[in-house]
Amino acid sequence: MTGPKFGRRLGERIKLLASLSGTAPAETGTRGWSLPGVEEMEFMAKRAAALGVSDPFFRQHDGLAAATTLIDGREYINFSSYDYLGLNGDPRVIGRVEEALHRFGTTVSASRMVSGERPFHRELERALAEWHGAEDCVVMVSGHATNVTTLAQLMRPGDLIIHDALAHNSLIQGAILSGARRIAFTHNDVAAAREQLWMHRRAHKRALLVLEGHYSMDGDIPDLAAFVELAREFDCMTLVDEAHSTGVLGARGHGIAEEAGVAPDSIDLWMGTLSKSLISCGGYIAGRADIITYLKRTAAGFVYSVGLPPTNAAASMAALDIIREEPWRIARLRENSTQLLRLFREAGFDTGTSEGYGIVPLVTGSSLLAGRLSQALFERGLNVQPIIHPAVPEKAARLRFFVSASHTPGQIEQTVSLVGQAMRALSE
């Protein structure tokens, strides 16, 4: 992926990282070439420094980051963790990890295809397939790479990939790499998706409809039943990214299908990550057995990558077992998220389209205000990250609150109070 489009995307990402930073970059030229966007990055860094906005990224946490975290020895209420169900650091999980560590070591030392296959790989894959009501599953070492390599392998030039406009970067990059035609439709808009399919489906060989179960920027969910019917109408395969919905949606945490009352086998491919509710690292695809076998034999991100480490698999297996045994964690997460959403709205804050499942944005409408508010809250003992342009449109700049079952009602009430204090101080 080279050329001017790649350069522009790289420049945008550099500006995003630098727009709140007060740190100047190194020399721009190396052996006669320079990175696109470096001059803009320098300008934004100087502008942020002049406004007194410090860099909120890459802060070093001193220990386990849960409902609270330690940064430079100070405790903060923490809303920047994917640990939705409060399982990170659970003694039962650590015990299972220690067992795997002593038996298998820290790595499987090879690609699974050639010499890295271990019993825990299939154990985890069977458990995840059962979790999603699928025939089989393949686990990979990176959630981002799972989407990229799956879409790139399954789709081809002449095919069509139609996806929600707010689809994750990994889905978009996989679609681009596949060579298929890629068309986005208005977020969560079934009618808009139907219009695109009506105009373009017949001109392509195969089609894939791509959704997310729980959108990570806005905290809302799609009308899954309507999209399933749409896919049937236009002969589309379906892929649903459950990264932020596994362990979050549905009374038992089985995701968007359980939440929506839709038969799991009405979806062709379920994608998920191990790094959120399953407190590890990696990604997976669950679906028809023949598709999974095909991916295991051909998908570059699996074939040419080392297998999932023993400790990662053990942590996720332990998390799945605990979620089955303790569904109260999912109910607690929903209670906490609903409380935060309700209190923010009662205080007059813009929370966008969030439905209170685990992600609550606080829309500021300005990247500068988002950065200043994040810093003001950090100074008051609250850790929450800004999401700014170009990651979102400027008018949609926000703070993004990831809620956990381990947050207390008192912490949530204190959070809303601190946000109110900081907003008033910034407006003076």
Automatic annotation (TrEMBL):
GO annotation terms (biological process): biotin biosynthetic process
Keyword match Transferase: yes
Sequence ranges assigned to domain Aminotransferase class I/classII large in this UniProt record: 75-416
Keywords: Aminotransferase, Pyridoxal phosphate, Transferase
Domain of life: Bacteria
Gene Ontology MF, one: 8-amino-7-oxononanoate synthase activity
Cofactor(s) of this protein: pyridoxal 5'-phosphate
Name of the protein in question: Aminotransferase class I/II-fold pyridoxal phosphate-dependent enzyme
